[in-house]
Protein backbone atom coordinates (compact mmCIF):
# COMPACT_ATOMS: atom_id res chain seq x y z
CA UNK A 1 0.00 0.00 0.00
CA UNK A 2 1.35 3.44 -0.84
CA UNK A 3 1.70 5.86 2.00
CA UNK A 4 3.25 9.24 2.49
CA UNK A 5 6.14 9.46 4.88
CA UNK A 6 4.62 10.15 8.28
CA UNK A 7 5.89 12.15 11.27
CA UNK A 8 7.50 15.55 11.01
CA UNK A 9 11.17 14.72 10.39
CA UNK A 10 13.35 15.58 7.37
CA UNK A 11 11.77 12.97 5.05
CA UNK A 12 8.17 13.51 6.16
CA UNK A 13 5.34 14.56 3.84
CA UNK A 14 4.67 17.38 6.33
CA UNK A 15 8.06 18.92 5.50
CA UNK A 16 8.28 17.90 1.85
CA UNK A 17 4.96 18.79 0.25
CA UNK A 18 5.63 22.31 -1.03
CA UNK A 19 4.98 21.29 -4.64
CA UNK A 20 1.49 20.08 -3.71
CA UNK A 21 1.00 23.19 -1.55
CA UNK A 22 1.42 25.47 -4.57
CA UNK A 23 -1.88 24.21 -6.00
CA UNK A 24 -3.70 25.87 -3.12
CA UNK A 25 -2.58 29.39 -3.96
CA UNK A 26 -2.42 28.89 -7.72
CA UNK A 27 -6.03 27.77 -8.18
CA UNK A 28 -7.65 25.75 -5.40
CA UNK A 29 -8.26 28.59 -2.93
CA UNK A 30 -10.26 30.74 -5.37
CA UNK A 31 -12.10 27.78 -6.84
CA UNK A 32 -13.17 26.28 -3.52
CA UNK A 33 -14.43 29.55 -2.10
CA UNK A 34 -16.37 30.30 -5.27
CA UNK A 35 -17.95 26.84 -5.47
CA UNK A 36 -18.88 26.78 -1.79
CA UNK A 37 -20.36 30.28 -1.93
CA UNK A 38 -22.71 29.14 -4.70
CA UNK A 39 -23.59 25.75 -3.28
CA UNK A 40 -27.36 25.89 -2.94
CA UNK A 41 -27.62 22.63 -1.01
CA UNK A 42 -25.86 24.25 1.96
CA UNK A 43 -28.55 26.91 2.40
CA UNK A 44 -30.35 26.45 5.69
CA UNK A 45 -28.24 23.44 6.75
CA UNK A 46 -27.31 23.39 10.39
CA UNK A 47 -24.81 20.52 10.02
CA UNK A 48 -22.50 20.47 7.02
CA UNK A 49 -20.44 17.37 6.36
CA UNK A 50 -17.15 17.63 4.53
CA UNK A 51 -14.65 14.90 3.60
CA UNK A 52 -11.05 15.35 2.47
CA UNK A 53 -10.10 12.04 0.83
CA UNK A 54 -6.37 11.27 0.73
CA UNK A 55 -5.77 14.07 3.22
CA UNK A 56 -2.30 12.92 4.40
CA UNK A 57 -0.78 15.12 7.15
CA UNK A 58 0.70 18.58 7.46
CA UNK A 59 0.06 22.12 6.36
CA UNK A 60 -1.75 21.30 3.13
CA UNK A 61 -4.32 19.21 4.98
CA UNK A 62 -4.95 21.98 7.48
CA UNK A 63 -4.98 24.74 4.89
CA UNK A 64 -7.70 22.95 2.91
CA UNK A 65 -9.72 22.42 6.08
CA UNK A 66 -9.32 26.08 7.02
CA UNK A 67 -10.28 27.25 3.55
CA UNK A 68 -13.44 25.18 3.46
CA UNK A 69 -14.35 26.06 7.01
CA UNK A 70 -13.86 29.78 6.35
CA UNK A 71 -15.90 29.65 3.13
CA UNK A 72 -18.77 27.91 4.91
CA UNK A 73 -18.59 30.43 7.76
CA UNK A 74 -18.50 33.40 5.38
CA UNK A 75 -21.21 32.31 2.95
CA UNK A 76 -23.45 30.01 4.95
CA UNK A 77 -22.68 30.81 8.60
CA UNK A 78 -25.44 33.41 8.82
CA UNK A 79 -26.13 34.31 12.40
CA UNK A 80 -24.00 31.42 13.64
CA UNK A 81 -25.06 28.00 14.75
CA UNK A 82 -23.77 26.11 11.68
CA UNK A 83 -21.71 23.08 12.63
CA UNK A 84 -19.11 21.57 10.31
CA UNK A 85 -18.35 17.89 10.63
CA UNK A 86 -14.99 17.58 8.91
CA UNK A 87 -13.69 14.13 8.05
CA UNK A 88 -9.97 13.69 7.47
CA UNK A 89 -9.86 10.53 5.41
CA UNK A 90 -6.91 8.49 4.23
CA UNK A 91 -5.63 4.92 4.27
CA UNK A 92 -5.37 3.42 7.76
CA UNK A 93 -1.58 3.50 7.35
CA UNK A 94 -1.66 7.32 7.22
CA UNK A 95 -0.05 9.00 10.20
CA UNK A 96 -3.32 10.08 11.85
CA UNK A 97 -1.53 10.58 15.19
CA UNK A 98 0.66 13.34 13.80
CA UNK A 99 -2.32 14.76 11.90
CA UNK A 100 -4.60 15.06 14.93
CA UNK A 101 -1.83 16.60 17.01
CA UNK A 102 -1.46 19.18 14.24
CA UNK A 103 -5.25 19.67 14.12
CA UNK A 104 -5.37 20.39 17.85
CA UNK A 105 -2.76 23.13 17.68
CA UNK A 106 -4.33 24.67 14.59
CA UNK A 107 -7.91 24.67 15.85
CA UNK A 108 -6.99 26.60 18.96
CA UNK A 109 -5.54 29.36 16.73
CA UNK A 110 -8.73 29.79 14.74
CA UNK A 111 -10.18 32.40 17.11
CA UNK A 112 -13.72 33.73 16.94
CA UNK A 113 -14.78 31.76 13.87
CA UNK A 114 -14.42 28.56 15.89
CA UNK A 115 -17.04 29.73 18.39
CA UNK A 116 -19.74 30.74 15.86
CA UNK A 117 -19.20 28.08 13.17
CA UNK A 118 -18.02 25.13 15.17
CA UNK A 119 -15.81 22.54 13.47
CA UNK A 120 -15.80 18.94 14.61
CA UNK A 121 -12.76 17.11 13.25
CA UNK A 122 -13.06 13.36 12.70
CA UNK A 123 -11.08 10.59 11.04
CA UNK A 124 -12.48 8.32 8.35
CA UNK A 125 -9.78 5.72 7.71
CA UNK A 126 -10.17 3.57 4.61
CA UNK A 127 -9.61 3.42 0.88
CA UNK A 128 -11.49 5.93 -1.23
CA UNK A 129 -12.06 3.15 -3.74
CA UNK A 130 -14.51 1.71 -1.20
CA UNK A 131 -17.48 3.12 0.70
CA UNK A 132 -16.47 5.42 3.56
CA UNK A 133 -19.72 7.17 4.59
CA UNK A 134 -23.43 6.39 4.93
CA UNK A 135 -25.76 6.98 1.99
CA UNK A 136 -26.56 10.60 1.12
CA UNK A 137 -24.65 12.01 4.08
CA UNK A 138 -21.81 14.19 2.72
CA UNK A 139 -22.19 17.73 1.32
CA UNK A 140 -18.65 18.44 0.13
CA UNK A 141 -15.92 16.04 -0.99
CA UNK A 142 -12.39 17.19 -1.70
CA UNK A 143 -9.50 15.09 -2.94
CA UNK A 144 -6.17 16.63 -3.94
CA UNK A 145 -3.05 15.01 -5.39
CA UNK A 146 -4.33 11.54 -4.50
CA UNK A 147 -6.50 10.00 -7.21
CA UNK A 148 -3.55 9.30 -9.50
CA UNK A 149 -2.60 6.62 -6.95
CA UNK A 150 -4.18 3.32 -7.94
CA UNK A 151 -5.52 0.73 -5.53
CA UNK A 152 -2.78 -1.66 -6.65
CA UNK A 153 -0.14 -2.31 -9.27
CA UNK A 154 -1.95 -4.15 -12.09
CA UNK A 155 -1.48 -7.84 -11.37
CA UNK A 156 -0.20 -8.79 -14.82
CA UNK A 157 2.58 -6.24 -14.56
CA UNK A 158 4.10 -8.19 -11.64
CA UNK A 159 3.50 -11.62 -13.16
CA UNK A 160 6.71 -13.03 -14.66
CA UNK A 161 4.73 -15.29 -16.99
CA UNK A 162 2.57 -12.50 -18.40
CA UNK A 163 3.20 -10.53 -21.60
CA UNK A 164 2.53 -7.45 -19.43
CA UNK A 165 5.45 -8.24 -17.09
CA UNK A 166 7.27 -4.97 -16.51
CA UNK A 167 10.85 -6.18 -16.21
CA UNK A 168 13.52 -3.59 -15.29
CA UNK A 169 11.06 -0.74 -15.06
CA UNK A 170 9.10 0.72 -12.17
CA UNK A 171 6.52 2.44 -14.35
CA UNK A 172 5.58 3.06 -18.00
CA UNK A 173 8.10 5.33 -19.67
CA UNK A 174 7.60 6.15 -23.34
CA UNK A 175 8.05 3.15 -25.60
CA UNK A 176 6.98 0.62 -22.92
CA UNK A 177 5.33 -2.53 -24.27
CA UNK A 178 1.71 -1.87 -25.22
CA UNK A 179 0.43 -4.67 -22.98
CA UNK A 180 2.00 -3.07 -19.89
CA UNK A 181 0.61 0.38 -20.69
CA UNK A 182 -2.79 -1.15 -21.32
CA UNK A 183 -2.75 -2.97 -17.99
CA UNK A 184 -2.08 0.32 -16.19
CA UNK A 185 -4.83 2.09 -18.14
CA UNK A 186 -7.36 -0.61 -17.31
CA UNK A 187 -6.53 -0.52 -13.61
CA UNK A 188 -6.93 3.28 -13.64
CA UNK A 189 -10.27 3.05 -15.42
CA UNK A 190 -11.60 0.48 -12.97
CA UNK A 191 -10.44 2.52 -9.98
CA UNK A 192 -11.97 5.79 -11.15
CA UNK A 193 -15.25 4.02 -11.82
CA UNK A 194 -15.22 2.58 -8.27
CA UNK A 195 -14.41 5.99 -6.80
CA UNK A 196 -17.26 7.73 -8.63
CA UNK A 197 -19.81 5.07 -7.74
CA UNK A 198 -18.89 5.18 -4.04
CA UNK A 199 -19.11 8.97 -3.93
CA UNK A 200 -22.43 8.88 -5.78
CA UNK A 201 -23.86 6.87 -2.88
CA UNK A 202 -22.40 9.09 -0.22
CA UNK A 203 -22.87 12.62 -1.55
CA UNK A 204 -26.24 14.33 -1.09
CA UNK A 205 -28.13 15.41 -4.18
CA UNK A 206 -26.74 18.86 -5.08
CA UNK A 207 -23.51 18.10 -3.17
CA UNK A 208 -20.08 19.16 -4.41
CA UNK A 209 -17.07 17.02 -5.37
CA UNK A 210 -13.77 18.75 -6.15
CA UNK A 211 -10.91 16.63 -7.43
CA UNK A 212 -7.35 17.65 -8.22
CA UNK A 213 -5.32 14.80 -9.64
CA UNK A 214 -2.11 14.42 -11.58
CA UNK A 215 -3.03 14.31 -15.25
CA UNK A 216 -1.59 13.72 -18.69
CA UNK A 217 -1.59 16.22 -21.50
CA UNK A 218 -1.03 13.71 -24.27
CA UNK A 219 -4.52 12.40 -24.90
CA UNK A 220 -3.53 9.73 -27.37
CA UNK A 221 -0.39 8.19 -25.89
CA UNK A 222 -0.83 6.86 -22.36
CA UNK A 223 2.83 5.83 -22.24
CA UNK A 224 3.71 9.53 -22.52
CA UNK A 225 2.67 10.00 -18.91
CA UNK A 226 4.73 13.04 -17.98
CA UNK A 227 6.01 14.76 -21.13
CA UNK A 228 9.67 15.15 -22.11
CA UNK A 229 11.14 16.96 -19.09
CA UNK A 230 9.33 15.09 -16.39
CA UNK A 231 10.06 11.79 -18.01
CA UNK A 232 13.47 12.42 -16.47
CA UNK A 233 12.54 14.52 -13.48
CA UNK A 234 9.33 13.22 -11.91
CA UNK A 235 9.77 10.94 -8.95
CA UNK A 236 8.78 8.23 -11.47
CA UNK A 237 11.14 9.20 -14.27
CA UNK A 238 14.50 8.01 -15.51
CA UNK A 239 16.48 9.45 -12.59
CA UNK A 240 14.59 7.03 -10.44
CA UNK A 241 14.91 4.10 -12.86
CA UNK A 242 18.64 4.67 -13.33
CA UNK A 243 19.16 4.72 -9.60
CA UNK A 244 17.74 1.21 -9.24
CA UNK A 245 19.87 -0.02 -12.10
CA UNK A 246 23.05 1.42 -10.60
CA UNK A 247 22.34 -0.10 -7.19
CA UNK A 248 21.68 -3.50 -8.74
CA UNK A 249 24.89 -3.32 -10.78
CA UNK A 250 26.99 -2.45 -7.72
CA UNK A 251 25.33 -5.31 -5.78
CA UNK A 252 23.49 -3.25 -3.10
CA UNK A 253 20.07 -4.43 -4.25
CA UNK A 254 19.08 -7.68 -5.92
CA UNK A 255 17.59 -7.71 -9.38
CA UNK A 256 14.54 -9.39 -7.88
CA UNK A 257 13.90 -6.41 -5.60
CA UNK A 258 14.23 -4.06 -8.55
CA UNK A 259 11.76 -6.02 -10.65
CA UNK A 260 9.25 -6.30 -7.87
CA UNK A 261 8.94 -2.54 -7.35
CA UNK A 262 6.31 -0.86 -9.51
CA UNK A 263 4.45 2.38 -8.97
CA UNK A 264 0.71 2.10 -8.57
CA UNK A 265 0.22 5.41 -10.25
CA UNK A 266 -1.30 6.58 -13.53
CA UNK A 267 -1.71 10.03 -15.03
CA UNK A 268 -5.11 10.19 -16.74
CA UNK A 269 -6.00 12.40 -19.66
CA UNK A 270 -8.92 14.76 -19.17
CA UNK A 271 -10.92 12.68 -21.63
CA UNK A 272 -10.40 9.55 -19.51
CA UNK A 273 -11.82 11.40 -16.51
CA UNK A 274 -14.76 12.78 -18.50
CA UNK A 275 -15.68 9.37 -19.92
CA UNK A 276 -15.57 7.77 -16.45
CA UNK A 277 -17.86 10.40 -14.92
CA UNK A 278 -20.30 10.43 -17.83
CA UNK A 279 -20.54 6.64 -17.88
CA UNK A 280 -22.30 6.66 -14.50
CA UNK A 281 -24.66 9.54 -15.31
CA UNK A 282 -24.74 10.37 -11.61
CA UNK A 283 -22.86 13.66 -11.57
CA UNK A 284 -23.11 16.88 -13.51
CA UNK A 285 -19.67 17.99 -14.70
CA UNK A 286 -19.32 21.64 -13.75
CA UNK A 287 -15.63 22.13 -14.49
CA UNK A 288 -13.03 20.05 -16.25
CA UNK A 289 -9.76 21.94 -16.44
CA UNK A 290 -6.17 21.09 -17.09
CA UNK A 291 -3.37 23.19 -15.56
CA UNK A 292 0.33 23.03 -16.10
CA UNK A 293 1.50 23.53 -12.54
CA UNK A 294 5.08 24.59 -12.06
CA UNK A 295 6.84 23.04 -9.09
CA UNK A 296 8.56 26.27 -8.12
CA UNK A 297 8.36 30.02 -8.71
CA UNK A 298 9.95 31.12 -11.95
CA UNK A 299 13.13 32.56 -10.37
CA UNK A 300 13.55 29.60 -8.04
CA UNK A 301 13.10 27.15 -10.92
CA UNK A 302 15.79 28.93 -12.94
CA UNK A 303 18.18 28.69 -10.02
CA UNK A 304 17.44 25.04 -9.32
CA UNK A 305 17.82 23.99 -12.95
CA UNK A 306 21.18 25.80 -13.21
CA UNK A 307 22.60 24.22 -10.07
CA UNK A 308 22.96 20.42 -9.97
CA UNK A 309 23.27 20.35 -6.18
CA UNK A 310 20.18 22.51 -5.65
CA UNK A 311 18.21 20.31 -8.03
CA UNK A 312 19.41 17.14 -6.28
CA UNK A 313 18.22 18.51 -2.93
CA UNK A 314 14.86 19.57 -4.37
CA UNK A 315 14.41 16.23 -6.09
CA UNK A 316 15.21 14.00 -3.13
CA UNK A 317 12.91 16.09 -0.94
CA UNK A 318 10.05 15.60 -3.42
CA UNK A 319 10.68 11.86 -3.73
CA UNK A 320 11.30 11.45 0.01
CA UNK A 321 8.03 13.13 1.00
CA UNK A 322 5.94 10.81 -1.08
CA UNK A 323 8.02 7.63 -1.04
CA UNK A 324 10.73 7.39 1.59
CA UNK A 325 8.89 4.85 3.71
CA UNK A 326 7.62 2.84 0.71
CA UNK A 327 11.09 2.42 -0.72
CA UNK A 328 12.61 1.72 2.69
CA UNK A 329 10.03 -1.00 3.33
CA UNK A 330 10.84 -2.55 -0.02
CA UNK A 331 14.65 -2.51 -0.01
CA UNK A 332 15.24 -2.47 3.75
CA UNK A 333 16.04 0.47 6.02
CA UNK A 334 19.73 -0.56 5.96
CA UNK A 335 19.87 0.38 2.24
CA UNK A 336 17.74 3.50 2.21
CA UNK A 337 20.52 6.06 2.76
CA UNK A 338 22.53 4.54 -0.09
CA UNK A 339 19.45 4.69 -2.28
CA UNK A 340 18.90 8.39 -1.63
CA UNK A 341 22.62 9.20 -2.04
CA UNK A 342 22.58 7.52 -5.44
CA UNK A 343 19.31 9.23 -6.31
CA UNK A 344 20.91 12.61 -5.55
CA UNK A 345 23.94 11.72 -7.69
CA UNK A 346 21.75 10.67 -10.63
CA UNK A 347 19.71 13.86 -10.23
CA UNK A 348 22.89 15.99 -10.32
CA UNK A 349 24.03 14.22 -13.48
CA UNK A 350 20.68 14.85 -15.19
CA UNK A 351 21.12 18.61 -14.65
CA UNK A 352 24.77 18.53 -15.74
CA UNK A 353 23.63 16.84 -18.96
CA UNK A 354 20.86 19.46 -19.35
CA UNK A 355 18.18 16.79 -19.58
CA UNK A 356 15.55 18.91 -17.79
CA UNK A 357 14.47 22.34 -18.95
CA UNK A 358 11.36 22.89 -16.87
CA UNK A 359 9.65 21.50 -13.79
CA UNK A 360 5.91 21.43 -14.19
CA UNK A 361 3.24 18.80 -13.93
CA UNK A 362 -0.09 18.53 -15.69
CA UNK A 363 -2.96 18.62 -13.23
CA UNK A 364 -6.59 17.73 -13.87
CA UNK A 365 -9.10 19.81 -11.93
CA UNK A 366 -12.61 18.43 -11.81
CA UNK A 367 -15.74 19.93 -10.23
CA UNK A 368 -18.83 17.73 -10.01
CA UNK A 369 -22.33 18.22 -8.64
CA UNK A 370 -24.31 15.16 -7.57
CA UNK A 371 -27.52 15.08 -9.58
C1 LIG B 1 0.40 13.17 -2.22
S1 LIG B 1 -0.64 12.88 -0.86
C2 LIG B 1 -1.77 14.21 -1.01
C3 LIG B 1 -2.02 14.88 0.30
C4 LIG B 1 -2.85 16.14 0.30
N1 LIG B 1 -4.19 15.89 -0.16
C5 LIG B 1 -2.21 17.27 -0.48
O1 LIG B 1 -2.83 17.82 -1.39
O2 LIG B 1 -1.06 17.62 -0.15
C6 LIG B 1 -1.62 11.49 -1.41
C7 LIG B 1 -2.44 10.85 -0.29
O3 LIG B 1 -3.38 9.93 -0.86
C8 LIG B 1 -3.49 8.83 0.03
N2 LIG B 1 -4.05 7.66 -0.68
C9 LIG B 1 -3.50 6.92 -1.66
N3 LIG B 1 -4.33 5.94 -2.04
C10 LIG B 1 -5.45 6.06 -1.29
C11 LIG B 1 -6.67 5.35 -1.22
N4 LIG B 1 -6.90 4.30 -2.00
N5 LIG B 1 -7.59 5.77 -0.32
C12 LIG B 1 -7.38 6.83 0.48
N6 LIG B 1 -6.23 7.56 0.45
C13 LIG B 1 -5.29 7.18 -0.43
C14 LIG B 1 -2.07 8.62 0.50
O4 LIG B 1 -2.02 7.84 1.66
C15 LIG B 1 -1.62 10.07 0.69
O5 LIG B 1 -1.82 10.52 1.99
Helix/strand-derived category reads: alpha/beta
* CATH architecture level-2 label: 3-Layer(aba) Sandwich
The total strand number stands at 7
Tally of structural domains: 1
Rg calc: 21 Å
Taking the sheet with the most strands, its summary is: 7 strands, mixed
Describe the 3D structure.
- This protein is an alpha/beta fold and about 375 residues long.
- The chain has a single domain (about 20-370), classed as 3-Layer(aba) Sandwich (Rossmann fold).
- It contains 13 helices and seven strands.
- The protein has helices at about 20-35, 60-75, 95-110, 115, 155-160, 180-200, 225-235, 240-250, 255-260, 270-280, 300-305, 310-330, 335-350; strands spanning about 45-55, 85-90, 120-125, 140-145, 205-215, 285-295, 360-370.
- Strand 1 (about 45-55), helix 2 (about 60-75) and strand 2 (about 85-90) form a beta-alpha-beta unit.
Q: Which characteristics define this entry?
A:
single chain, 371 residues, alpha/beta, Rossmann fold, seven-stranded mixed β-sheet, 7 strands, 46% helix, globular, binds S-adenosylmethionine
Amino acid sequence: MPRMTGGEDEHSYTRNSQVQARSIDLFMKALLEDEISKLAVLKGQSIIKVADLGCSTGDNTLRYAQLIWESIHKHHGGGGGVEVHYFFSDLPTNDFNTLFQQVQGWESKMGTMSSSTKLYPAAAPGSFYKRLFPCGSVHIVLSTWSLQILSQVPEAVMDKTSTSYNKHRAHIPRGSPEAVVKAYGEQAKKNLHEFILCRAHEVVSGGLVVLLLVGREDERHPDNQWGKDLEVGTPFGSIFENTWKALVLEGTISEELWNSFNFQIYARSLEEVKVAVEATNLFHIKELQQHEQSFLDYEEEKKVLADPEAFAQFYISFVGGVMHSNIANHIGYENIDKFFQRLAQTAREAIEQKLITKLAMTMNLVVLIRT
